[in-house]
Design a protein that fits this description.
Distance between the termini: 42 Å
Oligomer: single chain
Number of strands: 6
Radius of gyration: 30 Å
Helix content: 40-55%
Number of helices: 9
Largest sheet: 4 strands, antiparallel
Strand content: 5-15%
Structural class: alpha+beta
Length: about 280
Amino acid sequence: MRNLKTALLLGATIALGTTACTKPADDAAKPASPASAPAEKASPTLVTVNGKAINSQMLDTFLQAVTGKPAAEATKEQKDSLLEQLVNMTLAAQAAEKDGLAATADVKARLDLLQMQILAEAASEKYVKSHPVSDDEVKAAYDSEVANMPKEYKARHILVEKKEAADAIIKELQAGGDFAKIAKAQSKDPGSAAKGGDLGWFSAQTMVKPFGDALAKLEKGKTTTEPVQTEYGFHVIQLEDMRAPSAPAFEEVKEQVKMFAQRKKLQAYLDDLRKTAKIQKTD
């Protein structure tokens, strides 16, 4: 059954840094001019491999990529081990360049893709830092998700193979027949027949569409007057009760909501970039 926490964790479909921009934004992706850009202090060289320097920034970046933690938290043993890996990677890369592999179509495409991904990540990270979501935006996103949570229903059903059998059951119910007794005697649903057709509490979205659509049209205490056909057969449905689902407390999901709202804002930014970009697809 869908709940707010699951929706926020799964409903977010825009991964930060995985969407490439076709046209950089002035405030997020355009490089600063040499005159205005602050001079960055050169990172100290740790080792040189055939004239190729491996500096501390490269090691720190590699450490974070491998461990998922800041380089400052790495032990000396981790740093020494990963530095040796960088040396080996450098030697292998130099051998590949010597063999002309960098000029092959496959490797060039992979290098271009990797560069594009890194630049997209950098642009996205810069946008997120300069456009953080406010507390009001987080609360508004939470309220919107809560308002859109689907109702929950408590219902019974009787499943039969043929429409004629369902029609006969509906007539029997209209004449005063007991739904639970008929379900136990005639329903083909092994999961609910023994319980008098009781399905418990659920949201309409968890059922096949014709069943969910028919349920949403029913009034509390009413039974369908026409058989509802699905891929499983013909259903007679009785709606016993309905309720609004309980939502988790705001504080419990605040961080997930914040991430959801930030990704939504980033998607809006990327959508704006697409509006001004010249994108041409070839057949």
